[in-house]
Amino acid sequence: MDDSVIIKIDGLTKRFPVGSGVFTALHNINLTFRRGEFTGLVGPSGSGKTTLLNIIGTLDCPSEGDVEVIGSSVKGLTHKQAAHLRNYNIGFIFQTYNLLQVYTVYENIEFALLLQNHTSAGRKKAVMEALEWVGLSDKFNSKPSQLSGGECQRVAIARAMVKRPLLVLADEPSANLDAKNSHNIVQMMKKLNKELNTTFIFATHDEKVMHYLDRIITLKDGVVDQDRLILMQENQLLC
Questions:
Q1: Other CB atoms within 10 Å distance of the CB of residue 87
Q2: CA 203, CA 8: separation in Å to the nearest integer?
Q3: Residue ranges of the domains in the chain?
Q4: pLDDT at position 115
């Protein structure tokens, strides 16, 4: 596989049992993602975007076909190997932030590093750097309940980025934010994408997020309906 390719999807089909029948959430998906892409999976609810994101993130497995993520076949991974791949190479951002309410901002971000072999000093350096990236250095000792929704999502971004992953998967990251915060959050992720060459893949139907994407993959009823690269000039105008 080309060194710049970090995800290769071949003939991916995903089925779920529903009652006495079967529901096909994804059908014969073939896609490739390269290092440093800023891509969105778009489509209405039920189109398969979150299912595809979960399989890329090794949280689920194909029924047929294969997905290769950072050199590893998803269906060939043990639970331990999948967890190792996520811990070191994949960051997750969710629409509901998923912050631990009893911990401080610092502790929530540090949590992503605890399963890695870092010293306490190394973790502190990485966490404070991540807080600087998202402009929350002064909030390190705050609890999530003391933050706004936009600030909570910035903490979630810092938590995803603190380990400098090759890949970040963001599932409707702007769904609970107003327009101003949505733009700020996506601009922040775009900046990190450029500075760290991290691949971002979004599952979204938010037009505000789409304005910043370099590539839009439209899913419809579990199949790829369109795969479109956004011209740089068009992207800059929309931003």
A1: 15
A2: 17
A3: 5-238
A4: 83
What dihedral do alpha carbons 109, 158, 209, 212 form, nearest 10°? -160
Query: How many angstroms separate the CA atoms of 27 and 224, rounded?
Result: 9
- pTM of the full structure: 0.92
Under the banding of pLDDT at 50, 70 and 90, the label for residue 167 is very high
The contacts of residue 65 (CB under 8 Å, 6+ apart) are 9, 10, 11, 12, 13, 28, 29
Contact of 109 with 173, CB cutoff 8 Å: no
Q: Which CATH architecture has domain 5-238?
A: 3-Layer(aba) Sandwich (3.40)
Question: In angstroms, rounded to a whole number, what is the distance separating the alpha carbons of residues 58 and 40?
Answer: 18
Phi and psi, residue 183, nearest 5°: -60, -45
Using the Cα atoms of residue 219, residue 225, residue 231 and residue 234 in order, give the sign of their dihedral.
Answer: negative
Q: Which of 156, 180, 173 is nearest to 108 (CA)?
A: 156
Distance in angstroms (rounded) separating the CA atoms of residues 117 and 12: 34
The answer on pLDDT for 157 being more than 80 is: yes
